[in-house]
Amino acid sequence: MSSTDKHIIETYSMLFDGLSSLAKIELIERLTKSLKREKTSKKDTFFKSFGAFGSEKPAEEIAEEIKSSRKFRNKEIKF
Fold first, then answer.
1. pLDDT score at 13
2. Residues of 46-61 as b/e, b for ≥16 C-beta within 10 angstroms?
3. Is 15 in contact with 24 (CB distance < 8 Å)?
4. Which of 50, 54, 64, 75 is buried most deeply by CB count within 10 Å?
């Protein structure tokens, strides 16, 4: 843990001293939920980064569509 993290934790703990026991319990519950969310979201994001192109069309048809949609214009360049 870095010294910055320690300082942040110390600052927050001084703020928590003024809270009621019920508020502290609520805070603990929310922190716990955020930790659980963080683990699953990172894992899900990692696995969602893999996969195939989302189309039912065969690769040849997709390639043909891309090639046919290209537009070229002939422009004469004068020197």
1. 86
2. eeeeeeeeeeeeeeee
3. no
4. 64
Residue pair 62/55 in contact by the 8 Å Cβ criterion: yes
- Can you tell me whether residue 79 is helix, strand or coil? coil
**How far is it, in rounded angstroms, from Cα 77 to Cα 70?**
21
The answer to whether residues 19 and 27 touch, using CB atoms and an 8 Å cutoff, is yes
Q: How far is CA 16 from CA 1, 11, 27, in A?
A: 21, 9, 9
Rounded to an integer, what distance in angstroms lies between the CA atom of residue 73 and that of residue 79? Answer: 19
pLDDT at 72: 82
pTM: 0.41
Tokens representing 3?
A: 């010294």
